[in-house]
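Project standup — Tuesday

K.O.: blocked on the structure for the chain from last sprint. Re-posting the sequence here as requested.
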Amino acid sequence: DCQKHGREEVKIIEKLSVAIKTMISASESLTRAFVGPKHETLAGASYKHSRGSNRSPSIVPDEDSMSRFIDDRTKNKVQDVDEHKQASEFRWPRDTLLSVISTFVHFSSQRLKELNKLINDPTFRMPEILDAKSHTRLADIAHTLLKLGGFDPITMSCRGIQNYFQKLLPWTNWSQEQLRPALNLLLRRIDRMFSKICKKPMTKRCFDWEATAGILNGIYLTIDRHPYI
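H.V.: unblocked you, prediction finished:
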């Protein structure tokens, strides 16, 4: 019958959540902060090159000056590529983990609510998708991306951080006091990020404000669903 199938589906979701929690537990290395070069913005160098590339020189440089100029430009381009590569390698595993888990939590939470109504048994206990330890670990991982996102526009728009704020945070039970520090950690980081960006014109111009709007929308949804925060 429907109730029997509902209980079986709950067990499947519970087994998946155990696997998810195990994966989160094994991801401690992803809580480490980015240690690569931190310029005003990773897009800054290419931005400045593109702005200056169309300008004609007022004087004709000699051969030695031109050679040094080309060498400097080449070094800058190589450095830009290296920095973007480091940021990409740092971002990718965190982005993937947050994206997968956020999507799972989002759909599983909704499905468990539907199954709870279907089973209609007050004695039946629904499983906990993520525990407090898992939420704290995920918040630490998201925190590392927010720190990188302060000077790397690509990070702010990556699917993982967007899904985390828009799909996972609103569906988290923030009534649990042990989860509040994780949320406060993220909110403080976002506040500091905006403060720093406003003081740096180059970063402000290159910043992905559309992606940031998605993150802020996730915070709004979280507060709207949990006004007691």
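K.O.: great, moving the ticket to review. The chain has one domain: 2-30+90-225. The chain has a mean pLDDT of 83.
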